Amino acid sequence: MKQVDFGQVANSYARSREDIPVTLMDSLKLRNIFFEGKKIADIGAGTGALTRKMAMRKADVIGIEPSQELLAQAKGLNQTKNFAIPYQQGSAEATGLEDSQVDIVTVMRAWHWFDRPKAILEMKRILKAKGTFIVIDSGFLPGVAVVEKTFEVLAKYVGDGLKPAGAKADSKQRINGFPVEWFEEWHQGGFELRDFYTLNYSVSFSKNEWIERVESISWLAGLDEAVRKQALEELFTSLPEQESYDIPHDCNVCILRLIE
């Protein structure tokens, strides 16, 4: 599986990946997931969007991220947004955290990039007995004119690469965006499925904000810089001028519990 260097688009990633639905944290609370005072590891933390939401709820949270560029953005946002969240370089397969010290592990928009068998072993290693493992994915949905035009333009540059990211591209069947084989992998790895649900929401973008959001997608993040710039320029001229684009999204949440 080809790995995408999101560090190439770290600035756009930081500005455009704050689109986590406000209902997410409430939905977890309704399912008896509480963050206050809990030791939490956010794996593949990126620029810290989810990490900050948990810190706001008084979690003792650390962000783990392999990209130095994204880590720099997360640490910079600590300063501008008045947080003191620790971040460290590490991967889902080798977090650098101690054994059995974490109450909750979260992974948002990243599980499809990991070496999953190794990542499952690492999640088990760092979690406390009966610890909670939460895998979240979210993104915009097709069907509206702006999104369809975006796909049309990007297909010229990405070709057959215009497909689900990472391991999702190889999956033959998905449930709410999650490849069905993931559920069996988690079960075989010692995790019990406790809940799985979808939140629907809408995000409003200005034209420039939408272009930045598109730039942070894996389809473009892996392109040569000159090609990426050309694709974004064509997209900008192809999209309509209007005050805002209201783009439908969904957020899929899987809550698992360590049973070994």
Folded structure, characterized:
- The chain has about 260 residues and is α/β, with parallel strands linked by helices.
- The chain has a domain at about 5-140 and about 165-200 and about 250-260: 3-Layer(aba) Sandwich (Rossmann fold), CATH 3.40.50.150.
- Helix content is about 35%, strand content about 25%.
- Strands 3-2-1-4-5-9-8 form a seven-stranded mixed β-sheet, sandwiched between helices.
- Helix 3 (about 50-55) links the parallel strand 1 (about 40-45) and strand 2 (about 60-65).
- The longest helix has 14 residues, at about 145-160.
- The radius of gyration is 18 Å and the shape is globular.
Mean pLDDT: 88
Radius of gyration: 18 Å
| SS element count, helices | 10
- Any idea what the CATH superfamily of the domain at 6-140 and 167-201 and 250-258 is called? Vaccinia Virus protein VP39
Number of strands: 9
Please write the CATH class name of the domain at 6-140 and 167-201 and 250-258: Alpha Beta
Shape: globular
Query: Major sheet: size, sense and barrel closure?
Result: 7 strands, mixed
The topology string of helices and strands comes to HHEHEHEEHEHEEHEHHHE
Strand content: 25-35%
